[in-house]
Amino acid sequence: MTTLTARPRPFWTLAVVHARFQFVETIRIPIAVLGNLLFPALALLFFVVPQRSVADDPVLATAAVAQLGTFAVMSTCLFSFGVGVSEDRALPFDPFLRTLPAGAGPRLAGRVINGVVWSFFALVPLVLIGWLLTAATITVPRALAAVVMVPVVAVPFLLLGLAIGYRLTSKAAIAVVQATLFPLAFAGGLFLPPEMFPGWLDAISKLLPSRAARDLAVQAVTGDPAYAGALVVILAWTALFAALAVLAYRRDEGRRFH
Amino acid sequence: MSVVSLTHVTRTFGPVVALDDVSLDVDQGELVGLLGPNGAGKTTLLSLVSGLRRPDSGDVRLFGGDPRSAASRIGLGTTPQDTGLPPTLTVGEVVDLVGRHYPAPMPTSEVLARFGLEDLVRRQTGGLSGGQRRRLAVALALVGRPRLVLLDEPTTGLDVEARHVLWQALREYHADGATVVLTSHYLEEIEALADRVVVVGGGRVLADDSLAAVLGLVGLRRVVLTVPASVVLDGLPGAAVVQDGVAAGDGGDVRRTVLASDADAFVRALVRQDVPFRDLEMRGASLEEAFLTLTTRDGEAADRDVVAHPGTDQPASDEPAEEVAR
Q: Which residue of A231, B93, B170, B220 has the fewest CB atoms within a 10 Å radius of its CB?
């Protein structure tokens, strides 16, 4: 029988289809994403640019841009593409999409691709302010390393956002994301540099995905090496969050009862 | 092999039993109407077949496979509820998004032409009228040339003309060899489309038969009349269900509603037996009332034999005495 030989469309074909349509949807209501771009840019403008001891030091200024850039990527991923899922899920179009012949993988991958693309956009204002108003500087190879680093930083937080978004209602998801994002960002050294942390906090910090992401981002742009194990820490969290996201997607039966 | 097969399927939502031990098979090429009042379990049944939900117990098969796996759903087409289109995407984009999930989708222009939407390809779905959105929603079910189409209340909220356009499109698609399962609480819609009708109520299959047979079951008359409280109407020829009366006037009269499978026989019996009735009214019973007879037949068959076989001329003289005593 033909059914037995029929297969769904290839994984990446479907993932790109979903990413493309999500991108189009996002770009037609860009204000949701723009809001996330604003906070890290303002933080750079008001807290880093006036401190000339930091802003005029090429290494410190570049590290500050990388640090806030990590935060920008984290918040874009958790808010727009984590909480966003819980909002989509409440709409009747989402259960319809689930009846199409595509499994959890391509749909989640599509969201991750779209999130990585928007993470790059989130960095544009920071890079511009850093370039124009501070001594931050970067070489071409380091800039390329930073480009590679963006998805490494973005993917774990996207997956965490998806796990939260598929498990919780949108109101609960917003609260959980806020309760996750700010402590993770602070303890990860995204607001205060970890050099100012007491020893115990530094030890905990090194186990967090936010700290690993921050140090890898700083390493990419300044060459200042991350602590040993940073890559392992972020990959382990990525694997854990991926498993949680797939479980949450499979468990989800939509918000509508009949 | 059945296109859809449910075997002893039960699904609950908290305390609500949405489906209660339902078994149902749909074969290739059938056009099945699922008929039932709101909350009967029709939508839950479709959500199990389309892989959105899992049954608590029992087995659901789609083309012989698990509907939760994407490969089983290649031959499946469903429709979003009408409010559920992404408002910023255009009609063409939504059709394209859905089509890209299937190996041999219909070209966008063909899909839109079938439903009279050709001129709207560049319109954002948020800007469509309710009727246009509804037509697009049904069009999306056909984009992938599915061999099974599931439609949940496809024409709710449409005007008569739009409804007929949609019915025609569905008949044509069925004529091409597809299997169609649709739910409705409009008898008219089921009459217009279905060959086989499954009546669902309270999470159970109450009747599963040809259209003509089910129409006979649910084609009831509602007779309202005022009689003295002592008069027993149960068991009269043609009376399917006698509902509790309400007091009328102060002479001990009650106003009773009788759902009659054969209203003519019922009225003739009233006259022949010289029942002192007055203010008799008669009209076609609503579908809800028809469902009530089926539910009653199903639930009380054991102790209400007469009601269980509407239309039999066998008055159960010993049974209604107790009813009067209540």
A: A231
Q: What's the CATH fold of domain B220-284?
A: Alpha-Beta Plaits (3.30.70)
CB contact set of A49 (below 8 Å; sequence gap of 6+): A55, A129, A133, A134
Residue in A closest to B42 by C-alpha: A258
- What's the ipTM? 0.82
Is B1's CB within 8 Å of A92's CB? no
Q: Which CATH class is domain B4-215?
A: alpha beta
| Distances B31 to B3, B169, B196 between C-alpha atoms, Å | 12, 13, 6
| CA-based nearest distance A186→chain B, Å | 37
Backbone angle region of B64, left / alpha / beta, with phi > 0 → left and psi within -120 to 50 → alpha? left
Cα A167 from chain centre: 18
> Domain locations in chain B?
4-215, 220-284
Please, are residues B253 and B227 in contact by the beta-carbon 8 Å criterion? yes
Asked whether A136 and A48 are in contact (CB, 8 A), the reply is no
Token readout for B237 is 């020829």
**What's the distance, CA A144 to chain centroid?**
19
Q: What is the C-alpha separation between A191 and A47, in angstroms, rounded?
A: 10
Q: What pTM, to 2 d.p., does this model score? A: 0.78
Question: Would you give per-residue pLDDT tens digits along chain A (258 residues)?
Answer: 444 447 888 899 999 999 999 899 888 887 767 777 788 888 888 888 998 888 999 999 999 999 999 999 999 889 877 788 888 888 888 889 989 999 888 888 899 999 999 999 889 999 999 999 999 989 999 999 999 999 999 999 999 999 999 898 888 998 999 999 999 999 999 988 888 899 999 999 999 999 999 999 999 999 889 999 999 999 999 999 999 998 988 888 754 443
Q: Is A100 on the interface with B (CB under 8 A)?
A: yes
Nearest CA in chain A to B54: A253
| Cβ neighbour number for residue B63 with a 10 Å cutoff | 25
Give the three-state DSSP class for B243: coil
- Does B11 contact A at CB distance below 8 Å? no
